[in-house]
Amino acid sequence: MFLKDLSFAAVLLPLLLSVQSLHGSALPAVSSYEFTAYRMQQFNLAQQKHGCRGAIVVAEARSADEPVLTRRCVIMKVSDFTTEKYLEAQRQNAAAILILLPKNISSIPHDTVQSFMVSESEALLKETLMPVYVVPEDEQLLYMYEEVKQAAATRTSSIFIRVLRSMVTATAFQILVSNNVPIKAITDNALVTLEGVLPGTEEDVPTIVITAHYDSYGLSPWLSYGADSNGSGVTILLELTRLFQKLYNSPSTRPPYHLMFSLTGGGKHNFLGTKRWIEENLDHAESSLLHDNVAFVLCLDTLANGDELYMHVSRPPKPDTPMYSFIEQLEEVVSSRFPWVKIGLVHKKINLVESTVAWEHERYSLRRIPGFTLSHLEDPKSELRGSVLDTMAQVDFRKLKRNGIIIAEALARYMFNLSDKGSPKDVQVFRGQMDIQDSRMSSLMSFLTSVPRATQLLDKEPSHILLVNSLEHEFKRYLQQVHRHTFRQDKRDPDITFFDQMNQPIVMYRVKPAAFDLFLGGCIAAYLGIVYYAIQNFGYLYTKLKAAVKSKHQ
After folding, report:
1. 88-113: per-residue pLDDT in tens?
2. 154, containing H or E segment
3. Cα torsion through 159, 163, 169, 171, rounded to 10
């Protein structure tokens, strides 16, 4: 009986090893693979800490489906990342989370995108010591994901033979981020705000301010492209500069208003660029259009989708005020040309106890300058306002153009007072050669999403600095009195503190699990036992074998 068992083990060992050889060659693999991953946001704002505080990872990769995640690096796809799984990884003291981001965002189902965005925004609300990394998918990373996924399915099975097979054929992956340099705070970030003007017919005419913030936000700064929020607002603003420059070029079509445009930095971080720009104009400048008669401020934010337009105000506008009249013109353009678009007024009081504001117009309202934000979002806390999935795939260019037309036509109707002059409700000021250009809007959006526009990158990286310089060049092309305001923080008491090491080289090693070493050791011991038994009992085995052969021939 003992000899029979040993013979079975001797046959099983080469069989399992041959299975391992076939299994290992079924998919592309290398013993080690280095790639760049991008760390989760880390910043301090308004005495609150956000994002992950850790960077170093030395752990075995495991699927989020595993029951035990302690001291493991949890590998997730976008579809796996939920608030529940994120909190469970934290609760079990997982070593890290690595999220694989597909290269083609448009291939992700809409429900999955919404679920990820919600989990992403909730994860960013608080700090965590657990390192969280995001990396674009590639062949090797997908291979690792499938392997750890299969291993998780095998380990949760109760069938002995599947567990035995997993011990022999499974491949484990070790994830290593070995940067020994401590994470350092960055307090010298510069916020750049651009301004330009189209002067009205006279010096003392009212001023209309049109503004948008140009930075982006998401789980990882290096992967935050901000197409809808707020590439859409910047795109419409830049197209408005071109359209109204044509009107202002001719004395016969120049409106009796100064039209002031501004692109502000730090919008995703409490609109710090807007705050500093207002302070610069009102508290330090000897003369400024913001000092004088401001009709209203129109803030453009997230306008590349939806069939709704919400006007967010800090207090409802009173009748006979410029802002009330403009909103009437806006509603008139929508009802006459785009009746399927829903228009709504959202009133939210500013809570002076809170240290942060929800919309850009609130920065103006705090200084008693009338303003409102126009957006297709009703909720200021919407997850759509900051996500690594906010790419060109989230942009509907037909709706972006439609919203640009609505804003441009409403502005023209208001500034030329067309309603009181008896003009038809569906009159079109911008048509023919004055129409919004599809190709220009598409080019602008492509340019804005060509690099991530996270606040902490815009004054550090050459390609990001070039982007801001290009926006300034676009202002100088169509506007007058263009100024670039660069605001630096007080290092002793900064408004916001960022941290370095936002992109890290990670090495993935293919290793066998510890169970394989034990199993292999047992098989070798069994094999040596067979050899030792054969040598010690050679005469007995030879006699038995000779008798068996002789009986067979007979």
Report:
1. 999 999 999 999 999 889 899 999 99
2. helix 139-155
3. 130
> How high is the pLDDT of residue 531?
81
Helix axis angle, 232-249 relative to 438-448, nearest 10°?
A: 130
Which one, of 39, 35, 113, lies nearest residue 81 by Cα? 113
Residues sharing a CB contact under 8 Å with residue 422, sequence separation 6 or more, in sequence order: none
d(CA 169, CA 1): 29
**486 - beta bridge partners?**
192
104 preceded by a cis bond (ω within 30 of 0): no
Residues 6 or more apart in contact with residue 315 via CB below 8 angstroms: 347, 349, 365
How far, in Å, CA of 402 to CA of 516, rounded? 62
pLDDT the model gives residue 291 = 78
Count of C-beta atoms within a 10 Å radius of residue 4? 7
Phi, psi at residue 514, to the nearest 5°? -60, -30
Rounded to an integer, what is the distance from CA 388 to the centroid of its chain? Answer: 2
Q: Are strands 42-45 and 496-499 parallel, antiparallel or unpaired?
A: antiparallel
Structure tokens at 64: 């989020």
The Cα–Cα gap between 54 and 69 comes to 17
CA 373/CA 60 separation, integer angstroms: 48
Q: What global pTM score does this model have?
A: 0.87
Alpha helices, DSSP H, located in 251-360: 272-279, 322-337
Single-letter amino acid, residue 72? R
Q: How many Å apart are CA 13 and CA 21, to the nearest integer?
A: 12
Q: Under 8 Å CB-to-CB from 111, ≥6 apart: which residues?
A: none
Q: Is 423 helix (H, G, I), strand (E, B) or coil?
A: coil
Beta strands, E only, 301-392: 308-313, 342-347, 371-375
Angle in degrees, CA 280, 282, 283, rounded to 5: 70
CA dist 541 and 535 (Å) reads: 9
Burial class (CB in 10 A: 0-12, 13-18, 19+), 22: exposed
Q: Is 403 helix (H, G, I), strand (E, B) or coil?
A: helix
Tell me how far apart the 2 most distant CA atoms of the chain are, in Å.
Answer: 125
